[in-house]
C-alpha cells in the first residue's frame, strides 16, 4: 500500500485511535490516513467475505425459498414449504439488520412454515394468504434494489 500522508491514525488493540508516524506502531487491522482511507489486507478480505455471504445467502436463497414454497402449495406437498422456510432463514436473519424489518423479518420463514400446516390440512387458500406476505416483501425488496441501482447509475 502507498503512504499518502505523513501522519496516520492507527486503531489500537483496545479500539482507541492513536496518532503515529511510524508504520511499525500501527495496531489493529485497519489503518486510516488523514488524506483518505486505506484498508489493510485483512480488512479487505473481511469485506469480501461479507459481500460473498450477502450474495450467497441473499437473493439466491430468497428465490429458491419462494420457488420451493410456491411449488409446495401448487403440488400440495408441505415438505417443500418446510424446505422453503428453511431456505428463507438466512435472508431473514440478514434482514434483521434493517431497523424497519427487525422483528418482521424473522416472521417471514415462520409464515412459510405455517403455510405448510395449512397445505397439510388442505386449506390452500389460507396457505396462499400466508405465503403472499414473504412474496410481497421479497418483491418490495427487489424493487428497492432496482430503484437504488438506477439512482446510483444516474438513470
Question: Which features does this protein show?
Answer:
155 residues; alpha+beta; four-stranded antiparallel beta sheet; 5 helices; 4 strands; 63% helix; 10% strand; elongated; disordered N terminus
Question: Would you spell out the secondary-structure blueprint of this structure?
Answer:
Blueprint: E1 8-11, E2 17-20, E3 30-33, E4 36-39, H1 41-57, H2 59-75, H3 78-95, H4 104-120, H5 124-152
Helix pairs in contact: 1-2, 2-3, 2-5, 3-4, 4-5
Architecture overview:
The chain is of the alpha+beta class and 155 residues long. It has 2 domains: 8-48, no CATH class; 58-152, no CATH class. Helices cover 63% and strands 10% of the residues. The chain contains 5 helices and 4 strands, in the order E-E-E-E-H-H-H-H-H. A 4-stranded antiparallel beta sheet has the order 2-1-3-4. Helix 4 runs antiparallel to helix 5 (124-152). The chain is elongated. The model is unreliable at 1-22 and 24-37 (pLDDT under 50).
